[in-house]
Amino acid sequence: MPIISINLALHLLAVVVWVGGMFFAHQVLRPAAVEQLEPPQRLPLWVAVFRRFFPWVWVSVTVVPATGYWMIFNIFQGFAGSPLYVHVMNGIGLLMIAVYLFVFFVPYAALKRAVTDQDWPAGGKALATIRKLVGFNLLLGLATIVVAGGGRYLGLG
């Protein structure tokens, strides 16, 4: 199997894990947790969920740009030779990584502290911030998938 196939497969798998995980958490798990659990049960659940999901996101935020830049420099011979949709994917991807880093280091840290202290109002505030930012990142991720899949056909190529 040529290295380009392996690189592209790793790139796509990392995107699926990250964006798919956000979709599941935001659109499926969150509404079910709100419906079924009170804050003293719901907030520790989210800490446990993030503790398991965020290591996969760390892998994704490493693999996606590494494989993406590999393709930019080995397929398109750099940014100058890259079509517009590649530039759009790169820009959105960098924004998504910045949002994730903020989520991980600020509201997720606050959520963990609040759960440890059993400060449910503070935990709810932190989780609400995470929910909004994950929703924003999910929209960015879905838009990037549209650009990746159809960019050259949407006049971005």
Q: How helix-rich are the residues, as a percent range?
A: over 70%
Query: Low-confidence stretches at least 5 residues in length (pLDDT < 50)?
Result: none
What global shape is seen? elongated
Chain-averaged pLDDT? 96
- Structural domains: how many: 1
Largest beta-sheet details: none
Helix/strand order, N-terminal first: HHHHH
Task: Tell me the span between the first and last alpha carbons.
Answer: 27 Å
What class, by secondary structure content? mainly alpha
Strand content: under 5%
What does this structure look like?
This protein is mainly α and 157 residues long. The protein has one domain. 85% of the residues lie in helices and 0% in strands. The protein has five helices and no strands. α2 runs parallel beside α5, α3 packs parallel to α4 and α4 runs antiparallel to α5. The longest helix is centred in the middle third of the chain and has 36 residues. It is elongated, with a radius of gyration of 18 Å. The chain starts with a helix and ends in a 7-residue tail after the last helix.
